[in-house]
Automatic annotation (TrEMBL):
Residues in Orn/DAP/Arg decarboxylase 2 N-terminal domain copies: 47-292
Record's protein name: Diaminopimelate decarboxylase
EC category name: lyase
Gene: btrK
GO biological process terms, semicolon-separated: lysine biosynthetic process via diaminopimelate
Entries under Gene3D superfamilies matching the protein: Alanine racemase (3.20.20.10), Lyase, Ornithine Decarboxylase, Chain A, domain 1 (2.40.37.10)
Domain of life of the native organism: Bacteria
Amino acid sequence: MKPHGPIPPGFAADADGMLLIGGARADRLADAAGDTPLFVYVGALLAARIAEWRAAFPETVQLHYAMKANPYPPLLAFMAERVDGFDVASGGELRAALASGMAAEHISFAGPGKRDRELEAAIAAGATLNLESIGEATRALAVAARLGITPRLAVRVNPDFDLKGSGMKMGGGAKPFGVDAAEVPALVRRLIDAGADWRGFHIFAGSQALDAAAIAETQGQTVALAARLANDVGAPPPLVNIGGGMGVPYFPGDTAVDAVAVGAALADTLAARDPVLATSRFAMELGRWLVAEAGVYLTRIVDRKVSHGETFLVTDGGLHHQLAASGNFGTVIRRNYPIALANRFGGEPAETVSVVGCLCTPLDRLGDQVALPAAQVGDLVALFQAGAYGATASPAAFLGQGPAREMLV
Ligand SMILES: *Cc1c(COP(=O)(O)O)cnc(C)c1O
């Protein structure tokens, strides 16, 4: 038997032992969707998460949603009414963000490799471009001149540090992201001289960290770097986007980030900030932390078999929807995500089984030798922490399987 990650709070069973998701029975949700596999996202959990963040962080800090974590249109529309901005990373995400109802002035567009037509779409819409390189800055200024529009331009800084303990390092050393800190002041002066509306700095040092002290330390370094750069520029940045980094517990032994501690430390950092940042506004951009726990992936058991003494529950889902849970998306050692039998949620484990998907590859394993209540063909398996980097971060077309259904309840 191998352990699985902690089931997130907010889920319970009804009297029959059926998992309730946002108050609705998992089997009824699958019926309503018409088929499995199915992602269910719970609006009440999203709203609670946003409220938790707002209670923990200073009122002066804005909350942005990094929509690559989950761009499902109904979820985006839900978030658009509740957060202060969206961060997008492609022309396609920009279109989805605009369609969600989020105002263009609250959308910022980061990401390397923006094509001229994407720069044009952002400038024409009035969104902010987080410039990733000097070459991109030159192209953005040229596009703006051609359109006759004053562009909103911020500079993404490649910081000289990274977020300790983060699952994905996005700064420090040679990186395709952002402009090396040493080159930033000259670039900002060039943008201002060219007549652009300089919006400030974007500094993103890492992702999926659970250690509040490490996040707080990085935020301190981030604000200090923004002040140093602003002093070199000789102008205050209107907005400093200090990145995100708050992760969620996926694996055995992981514990939730202490958001209250991070927020309190940020309040102290901002209270002591360099005077050059006195009038600046600040934003955090979060993807995973906002949406992961609000999502459940439901997949149905199609077959049950024993091979050389190991019991397999073969499901209609798999890595084509949950690549990360299969251990094939940026993990070195495969460990089990939080998983449960939806039909007997919270029931005593009765057997050790491996839950696999329907793809013809040994990589397609959703739960490796996990202890679950006795399961039958037709039962539903629930994978948790499925609200982020699931449906759109997995190869849905692989083996002709196609996308999962999705619903917001
Ligand atoms: C991916 C990304 C995020 C979101 O990261 P999460 O771990 O989902 O919070 C935020 N900002 C930038 C620039 C990103 O690329």
